[in-house]
Amino acid sequence: MSKLSVHIETFGCQMNVSDSEQVATKLREHGFELADADASADVILLNTCSIREKAEQKVFRRVNEIKRGRAGRQPLVGVLGCVAQLEGESIFNSSPSVQLVAGTGAADRIPSLLDRVRGGESRVIDLGGREEGADFEISPAVRHSKHVAFVPIIEGCNKFCTYCIVPYSRGRERSRTAFEIVEDVEKLRADGFKEVQLIGQNVNSYRPRVEKGLEGFSGATPFSRLLRAVASTGMTRVKFTTSFPRDFHADIVKAIEEYENLCNWVHLPVQSGNNRILRAMRRGHKVEEYLERVAAVKNSRREISLTSDIIVGFPGETDEEFEDTLRLAEKCEFHGLYIFKYSERRGTPAARLKDDVTKDEKTRRFLSLENLQMAIQSKVYKDYVGRMVEVLAEGFSARSDSDLKGHTTCNKVVNFAASPEFIGKVVRVRVTEAKAHSLFGQLL
Ligand code: SAH
Ligand code: SF4
Ligand code: F3S
After folding, report:
1. Ligand 1 site, residue 271, Cβ cutoff 6 A
2. Is the N-terminal amide bond of 236 cis, ω within 30° of 0?
């Protein structure tokens, strides 16, 4: 059979980006070609996200678009990832042009599943888990960046926050051994990568079945031991996301203080500033406990930047309860905040509650929190003007070919004028201007 070209489109979180990289690696190994554009690809794979209704709808819109966009022979369309895992067979009925449905554990098997479709099977489905001992190998050639790499350390989630679909789409927590993770990071370092981001829905719950690779590293939790082990590889920069407040141990801050290459950024989603809502969300932490974690981060001798996620309009959230969230945001002075309007997900415990905050009211709360955050952020960002920051130059800036773009260790985007030879290097930049979500500066 001739070589088929495959175009992969990725929606959702870093875990999906990483899964797409694994799928791409496997496809290349099996003689498929990867296509950058969808226009002429023989196969289009959509790696999907189900976190909010809008994310899910995107997929079905995209399937229709692909179908209408081709005059001649239709490409083979496959739906992978979280929507596939949750919707399964029903995708074939709602989108008859889809020929393959493969869930969140099927990355390894995509080549053979595609072979079955080519062999004449019309509706191929695989919702099985990742095989025991399956490798997470990713070819450097298919990584989303040549300089920054995502390294999964834990998959799935056991938290069951009442609004969230992830425990259903990704299943129970499974941690990789530190030995494998450290091996990945060492390879990445040898391949010239400057930054790794250890990823998981909830990295603080990292708990491998065997401690292989953690021997000799101290720390209050397996995760903080892992941080020390990974930092000891000498990788230039190590970031990690997402942290779960209840399990965020102060030893993580200690590890950051001990190792310069552990970056000074913590993403710690709070979701609400009101204890009744937090309980209804089953987050397992109170406002007071969250503020203790925040204090541990802010009192560090490293200047650690803190970002968060908040959901507005959870079922039953009153005006006063929402105002508690505003007050919390004011206190925490996040360096970045992702705000989401509550979206009901079928099958979650919160879906049994009445989604009684109107659409307009959710929008009002969203804008009010966004306004407050923009005011806080403007102050935070302006404070950087005149300061020197270290930036990993990751590529050209979106606006201009004579500017480069990268991130600070505190995860802020910085644009600066410099020639392309600096791409892939950590450079020093003097900040000259603050925008709403980025900084501008001069190369030193
Ligand atoms: N594991 C991470 C984040 C998972 S999803 C954590 O525990 O924080 C990323 C963000 O999407 C969440 O932090 C939450 O703010 C938001 N989110 C998840 N489910 C949602 C829902 N049903 N409606 C609106 N926002 C949601
Ligand atoms: Fe969802 Fe909560 Fe798990 Fe995060 S910790 S993925 S919000 S269930
Ligand atoms: Fe979305 Fe699945 Fe990630 S639902 S946020 S792609 S785990």
Report:
1. yes
2. no
Q: What is the pLDDT of residue 1?
A: 58
Ligand 3 atom at minimum distance from 201 CA = 7
3-state secondary structure 275-343: HHHHHHCCCCCCHHHHHHHHHHHHCCCCCCEEEEEEEECCCCCCHHHHHHHHHHHHHHCCCEEEEEECC
Q: What is 5-126's CATH number, 3.30.450.40, 3.40.50.300, 3.20.20.70, 3.40.50.12160?
A: 3.40.50.12160
Question: CATH 3.40.50.12160 occupies which residues in the chain?
Answer: 5-126
Q: In which residue ranges of the chain is CATH 2.40.50.140 found?
A: 388-443
Q: Which numbered ligand comes closest to the C-alpha of 346?
A: 1
> Residue 121 C-alpha to ligand 2 middle, in angstroms?
36
Could you tell me if the CB of 343 is within 6 A of ligand 1?
yes
Q: Per the confidence metrics, is the pTM higher than 0.85?
A: yes
State in Å: Cα 418 to ligand 3 middle: 36
Residues 134-182: tens digit of each pLDDT: 778 899 999 999 999 999 999 999 999 999 999 999 999 999 999 999 9
Is the CB of 355 inside a 6 Å radius of any atom of ligand 1?
A: no
